[in-house]
Amino acid sequence: MDKIDAQELQNFIVNALDEDVRDGDHTSLACVPAEAVGSAKLLVKDNGILAGVELAKKIFYHVDPTFEIDIFIEEGSPVKYGDVAFEVRGKSQAILKAERLVLNAMQRMSGIATLSRQFVDAVEGLKVQILDTRKTTPLLRFLEKWAVRIGGATNYRTGLYDRIMIKDNHIDFCGTITQAVLQTEQYLAANDLALEITLEVRDMKELEEALAVGKINRIMLDNFDTETMRKAVELINGKFEVEASGGITLETVRAYAETGVDFISVGALTHSFKSMDLSLKKK
What we know:
6-stranded parallel β-sheet, 4-stranded antiparallel β-sheet, Probable nicotinate-nucleotide pyrophosphorylase [carboxylating], 283 residues, pyridine nucleotide biosynthesis, 12 strands, Aldolase_TIM
């Protein structure tokens, strides 16, 4: 559970349960005796990478600290149809209360982890790192970026506050790349901030301007084809970190990695994944 803020996680669990339960799980309260005790298993109905096990434990223990949980498959492990990830035993009403939140979170996280692992596997043996982006579900970013790490990819900036990223709209609103970079340098100095700077360029002309102005940490080559990207990497020649971005897919990611870039950012990790099919069934 590295990089997870305990209070943020607690707030998520409390708010998510409140959204679902409010003044009571009336179906379970009506149908299931309060004294009933039972067990349920987390059944995998898909293939991929399992994620969210630690979160599930936190949810269950929040609902009822007396739960007994046996983990059979650890977080980040490959799973296949028919696997049983864990078993939970305790009050039946409490199992039913926690069920949907556990499943919703794990299905989403496992889907993200699975796609992240596929991208990482696709560039195996090359020096490139696969990065996520800010294209996440509002208020669920910390969970989705957690799932990216479980899948073996790397988190990029967390939000607008922890890295400078000068993109096309910033440049267009500001005027030029040179002006945007120089104003950023002044802003960071005036506010005593030590943030790294990524600068997006859209073509070779913008790249030449970026190299002339300098004062940055990373150049993002946006929507370059692989041939042009290879030429751009050669022109940069190690002066700055190089990131590839823009519609890169599982089918094309290795070709982009082979151009010599250091990073490939993939928004699809958190916006175009397929949730894993999981269910919680009475044992």
